[in-house]
Design a protein that fits this description.
The chain is 70% helix and 1% strand. By secondary structure, it is mainly alpha-helical. It has one domain. The protein has a two-stranded antiparallel sheet with strand order 1-2. α6 runs antiparallel to α7, α7 packs across α8 and α9 packs antiparallel against α11.
Length: 377
């Protein structure tokens, strides 16, 4: 009976995070669609675009609004005595911690807001990559130093882990920006990855914790809800794009959420589980690194936009745009499964997980090279 009650508590928690965020995002993105053209938020067709008619930008503003509003409301309501009476004791006991941590969360939201506004300005007027990268690095550095969010790699050197953490945040911001090139792609990949990370955190046996990591799981699940609400408008044929405003915020939020979580302990039998986020996010990272490699090998700037992304290359090999998106969805899910296994196996098993992950990425690379073709449908 206790186990059944615990399951229903988790189900209620998940729905409580997803549904309000999804509804808010659906409404907010719908409003942005109406205001996009007067605000100059229109993505016009061009040589780097796959669409043939102008499409509104700014969907990322709706995603940001949903995440910020849901979490701000939750942290404010957590201090009300009546809320404690509504929740099961297993969740209610964490409310004082939520109240105590609200300033930390608001600080993280402030960083995401800066990046959303940066992306919004880039959507409207276009900014030089040097300025964008400088602000991304500045925000990431402040978050890492102020919030003490660092990768848990068991490296006894704060400068090294701090530098790697800044690189992780900036890398994911740009990875999700780069993969945002087809209807539903970046939002779908982010939703799958965030959901799989949140799933790990809600199963304490998967991370060696004594209880679920409710706080970080809520951060990720609220993003999933916001992305689901956005995807109603962004699924093919897309009626609105998230734009740089959304890609910057989403990449940042996934990065910070993955840094805030605990996947294992130093004395744990599964210290290799610290690489779980790398498994979950392998596909957007693969896309970013492969595109950068192609551009540099062709003597071009890695920040020069083009149609050489993984999804574009799949379409060139004969897959339809919808098929390309679903291939990347499925690959993201399969890589995420490896993260769950990694947290439950020993060192020998972790090597098999590594082999499986390399096999998935290798298969994608073969598709990328055109060794497997599918006729256009």
């Amino acid at each position: 009976m206790k186990q059944d009650a615990a399951v229903w508590e988790v189900v209620g928690f998940v729905l409580g995070c997803l549904l309000p965020a999804a509804l808010l995002a659906w409404l907010a993105v719908g409003l942005v669609r109406r205001w996009a053209e007067p605000l100059g938020l229109m993505d016009k067709p061009g040589y780097r675009k796959v669409h043939t008619t102008p499409i509104p930008l700014g969907g990322g503003v709706g995603i940001w609004f949903s995440v910020a509003t849901t979490l701000l409301a939750a942290t404010l309501l957590a201090g009300l005595p009546v809320v404690r009476q509504w929740l099961p004791e297993s969740l209610a006991q964490h409310l004082p911690g939520v109240v105590e941590s609200r300033w930390k969360l608001w600080g993280i939201l402030a960083g995401g807001t800066v990046l959303m506004l940066l992306g919004l300005e880039d959507d409207r007027r276009g900014l030089k990559w040097q300025w964008r990268l400088a602000i991304e690095v500045a925000v990431a550095t402040v978050i890492v130093l102020w919030q003490q969010m660092q990768l848990s790699l068991f490296i006894d050197n704060g400068w090294v882990t701090g530098l790697l953490s800044v690189l992780w945040i900036v890398g994911l911001i740009n990875a999700f920006n780069m993969i945002d090139n087809m209807d539903g792609l970046s939002g779908g990949v982010a939703a799958i990855g965030s959901a799989m990370l949140a799933g790990m955190l809600l199963m304490p046996q998967a991370t060696g914790e004594s209880q679920p990591q409710w706080f970080v799981a809520a951060m990720l699940l609220v993003l999933v809800g916001a992305l689901l609400g956005f995807l109603v408008h962004n699924r093919a044929p897309a009626k609105i794009f998230m734009g740089d405003a959304g890609a910057y915020f989403v990449g940042y939020w996934v990065a910070v959420g993955s840094l805030a979580a605990t996947y294992t302990g130093y004395q744990s039998a599964t210290p290799h589980a610290v690489f779980a986020p790398l498994c979950v996010l392998a596909i957007p990272l693969y896309d970013m690194l492969s595109v950068i490699w192609i551009r540099i090998s062709e003597g071009r700037s890695p920040f020069e936009g083009d149609k050489r992304h993984f999804s574009h290359r799949l379409v060139e090999q004969g897959w339809s745009k919808t098929q390309a998106v679903w291939i990347i969805y499925l690959a993201t899910f399969c890589c995420g499964i490896n993260a769950w296994i990694l947290a439950r196996t020993d060192w020998v098993g972790s090597l098999w997980v590594l082999a499986n992950l390399l096999g998935i990425v290798g298969l994608l690379a073969l598709l990328d090279l055109g060794t497997h073709r599918s006729p256009k449908r």
